[in-house]
From TrEMBL:
Stated name of the protein: ABC transporter permease
Keyword Transmembrane helix: yes
Transmembrane domains' residue ranges: 20-43, 84-107, 119-141, 167-188, 220-240, 273-295
Organism for this UniProt entry: Streptomyces capoamus
Key words of the record: Cell membrane, Membrane, Transmembrane, Transmembrane helix, Transport
Family: Belongs to the binding-protein-dependent transport system permease family.
InterPro entries listed in its UniProt record: MetI-like, MetI-like_sf, UgpAE/MalFG_permease
Amino acid sequence: MTSPTSRRPYGVKGAPYGFLLPATLLFALFFALPIGYAVWLSFRKMHVSGLGLGAGARSEVWAGAENYTAAFQDSELLNGALRVLGYGCVVVPVMLGLALLFALMLDSDRVRLAPFTRLAIFLPYAVPGVVAALLWGFLYLPDVSPFSFVLDRLGLPQPDLLDGGPLYLALSNIAVWGGTGFNMIVIYTSLRSVPAEVYEAAKLDGATPLQIALRIKIPMVAPSLVLTFFFSIIATLQVFNEPTTLKPLTNSVSTTWSPLMKVYQDAFGRNDIYSAAAEATLIAVVTLLLSFGFLRAANRRDKQEAAR
């Protein structure tokens, strides 16, 4: 008969797997399984016999790569991707530039009320995206916007921010307003982890605050900049809340303005979940490839600098 002491090591060795089991089950049920089901649906289609009436008139059949071929040839999906590309070219540089600037300013010895300022910059990130889009949407409308009222009183022209080219700036402003605080916190936390001795040595060598920021602080937080850029790229490719919320306020935002809006329209507007699944899979693959390529390029650059 095996004694309790001889069984104890096996229980200790199996304890980590027991702790990981709940997280693994949740990951499998609510992440891996839906993704697998979406990929499965992307290779299927609905076959309609006759008028589509009666039992057995509609059946799900294997479609192969038909849905993916149609997605590649879909001009609305391609145009949505180009619009998101232009949107990202505005959002990502401005948002990360402001986040880095605010982080460097808060890390300065001369700054006052740093906790309050840090909270004020971060606070917009806590506002839900739909609420932020509604807030800014009404500020953009000429009939209800206080900015338009002030411009009218001053006799200045009132730009229509919800039409044409300014629409990209209006959408980008919402994303920048909401995302700058989060990226600032990430960069600021990295700055605070830099040893104070590094700054003291630079000051003894006669370095100015600007030189310390450009030659010491920014290179030291490069990994955080890579991380925030990575997150920003993913968020840009998945833009959905802002254009969807502003759509009722303007005719310039179509139901397929962004790729994810196109997926939503196909799935729930046209009731074609198979094409929507193929499009969603393509978006996920493109996001993965871009993210992997960027991280690999960043790691290669870090290795080259380390070798020097």
